[in-house]
Structure formats: structure tokens, C-alpha cells
Amino acid sequence: MGEKISDKMKFHIKTYGCQMNERDSEKVYCIFKEYGFEEASIQDADVVVVNSCAVREKAESKIYSEIGRIKSINKKAKIIAMGCVAQFNHKKLKTVSDFVVGTSSIDKFYRIVKNIEDGVVFVDEKMDNPDYIFPHKKGLNAFVDIMYGCNNFCTYCIVPFTRGREISRTKESIIDEVKQLVDNGTKEVMLLGQNVNSYGHKLGYGFVDLLYEVDKIGGLERVRFTTSHPKDFSKELIYAMKELKTVCEHIHLPLQSGSNKILKLMRRGYTKEEYLEKVYLYKEQIAEGSITTDIIVGFPQETEEDFQETLEIVKNVEYDTSFSFKYSKRPLTKAREIEPQVDEDVKLRRLNELQDLQAEITQRKNKEQIGKVFDVLVEGKSKKGNMLYGRNRQNTVVNFDFKDNINARGDVVKVKITKALKHSLVGELV
Ligand code: 5AD
Ligand code: SF4
After folding, report:
1. What is the pLDDT of residues 159-174, one digit of tens each?
2. Which of 40, 121, 136, 359 could form a disulfide with 44 if both were Cys (CB 3.0 to 4.6 A apart)?
3. pTM
4. Which domains does the chain have, with CATH numbers?
């Protein structure tokens, strides 16, 4: 039997962007390993993969500077550009890389590993088989794609152009994947989609149905999901979260803006009143439920009053954390035409103000946890001294003394919180 072409090839993967990209990079990592490739530093690699993000201009320009940097460190390596920039700007990327692989073409890595000499552009409009179960790294936590793409066309967002139209995987395929993960030691899954609440509509079932099925899988400790779109986030989902033991008490519900005028210009499909109504029901029904969000400041036409309305909602909802961004003009999107655009210095001031407010709220909320007891899924040894760390069901990192519980990785333990830090909690075993 002849040796595989790719035997002992060395690879390095650099990932930018969201959890979807992280999962895609994991797929590539596993395909390379399956074909005998070895992980290495940029200097030593025969092939370097850069997984790109296009959501803001700064992220997009990163892939070009990163490829330049890689070439200056390692002239011989083949460069594979993948991810969101690869999907919508493959022509430009082809000029600086050997392969370009779009977001719908991850399966093409099975071809690349068989013949790394061919420089090709793989940018498919649609995935060949969304139900294909890509391999995972072994681990306690796993990302599981439940749907790909997005149909919402929020006016600022490039994602519908970089990840295509929404397509849901079948329940059967997702359940098979989660079962395989659990058989390999996974305790917690994060179900991924741009808008998980619209999962399955064309298949004749919905996200809540899927949650009921996933919850039944023996040996699975925790289920999380992201992202929830406020327009589709339903009462039924809140009640399912309440009923299903594995489903964790956390939602990521991107607000984007607290001004109805701006929400309309963004084409978000909800008003601030509708958003708040859902948040209030969630808070009322889900004891100790945490909530996080995404916010854009400086969207075109955003006035000081509009921005104040966003701050009001942040104060009112008291998010556990929020991810906030200055609006960035993106190609192909509607918002780039809306006038007037907001000055860069105004955007920056608003961003700082919002982030200061959020830091205050996060710190206050963390302090409120002192004295409470949480279930913590132990992930390993903490960087903070002689401690173990894990996350509570609300998704906050908790560090605690391990004493003789050194083998607790993968266990769920009860921890009483004694101290609140900026982004994490410290406690002791009870
Ligand atoms: N400018 C700034 N932020 C954006 N996001 C998406 N598109 C843009 C843009 N053009 C933010 C949104 C989204 C998060 C993933 O990125 O808040 O929820
Ligand atoms: Fe972008 Fe809106 Fe789709 Fe989210 S829902 S990916 S913000 S278009």
C-alpha cells in the first residue's frame, strides 16, 4: 500500500470571529488529523489555514495583514484562506493565498488533504449536505451546528451574504451527532445557529421540539444555544427552558439598539416594547436566569436621544454582560446607504459610555452572587493559583479550591460564592 500524500504534513490554524468559525476550524483540524497531519507552529507548518471574519471592517482587514505576517515568518507554507471573507471576496483572497475555501465548502478539505498541491477556489453557493456530521475534538463541551445561514438581512449585517440562506439540519442528524459526542465524554453542548428560534420551520418542526429531543439523550448534562433572535424568541421556548432539566438558564438576546426608530432602520422586526415584554417573561419564569446581548452604537441616523434609549434599556434589563460594537459600514448591506452616517469620534464616545455602564452592572451583578450556591461543571485546573474552574449554568466562570477533588473534571459540584471578580466568581465547595 502506498503512503498517503499528506502523511506527516504539518499544519497551523488561525481563527477569527464567532463560534461558528471556531466550529468550522475544529472541523478542519479533525480532518487534517484524520489524514495524518500534525499540528505545528506557523514557522514549522507546511500549510497554514486562516479562518476569517467579515462582520466588521476591522475584522476583514485582519485576514490580509495576517496572511502578510504568515508569509514573512514562513515563505514555504501553503496558505488556505477560509471563512466569511473567503465566501464573499474570494477573488481578492486568491491573489494572496494558495487555496480559498468558502463557508459552504468545508467538506472540500477532504479533497485538499488528498492533494495539497492543487491550488483551488472552493466557494459553493450551497452546502452539498448540511446533515453531514463533521468530526469533533474530544472534550467536555462541544459546539453543534443546528442550522446554517441567515434569512433576516438586518440592514447592517453581511452574514446573509457570507453564510448564505438559512438551512436547518434534520433532528435525526443533530441527535446522532450529540449522541456520538456524549459517547465520547461530552457533557455540555452549545447548539449553534444565527437565529436558532427559526430552526426547523421548513422541516415541519421547531426549535422547542429539538430541545425536547436533545434533553432526552442520556448522559448529557447541559444544553445551551445561541443566538436567539428577539423577533422569534417565543413564550414556548421560555416554558421549555423552565421544564427541561438539561437546558441552562442563559439566553443571548441581541438588542442592537434601544430606539424604535433605529430598530426599524436596522430591519430587526421588533420594537423595544416587544423586546422588553419577552425579557420580563423570561425573568419572571426562569429563576436565576442570566441574559447577555449584542449592541451596535452609531448606526446611521442614531441621535443622542436614540443612544440614551439604548442606555435606558441596558439599565432596565441589567444584562450580565454585553458585547458592544461601533457600527461598521459593510459591503452589500443596505445601511451603508443610509444618511447621515455617524462620526467616528461620536461612535467611540458612545461605545465607551455604554461599556462603562455595562462594567458597572456586571460588577454589581457579580457581587449579588456572593453567598449563593451554584452547580459548577468542572472543566479543569484554573490559571488562578491552586484552584479548579468551571462554569455555572448561567455561564459565568467560577474558580474554587480543589482540596482533594483533583479528579473532578467533568463532575458537577456545588460551589458557594465567596468573592466576585470583574468577569468571574470565586467560591468554595459545599
Ligand atoms: N457593524 C457593527 N457591528 C455589527 N454586528 C453585525 N454587523 C455589524 C456591523 N456592520 C454585530 C451585531 C451582531 C454581532 C455578532 O456583531 O451586534 O449581533
Ligand atoms: Fe446578521 Fe441579523 Fe442574521 Fe444576525 S439575524 S446574522 S444580525 S442578518
Report:
1. 999 999 999 999 999 9
2. 40
3. 0.96
4. 10-122 (3.40.50.12160), 141-367 (3.80.30.20), 373-429 (2.40.50.140)
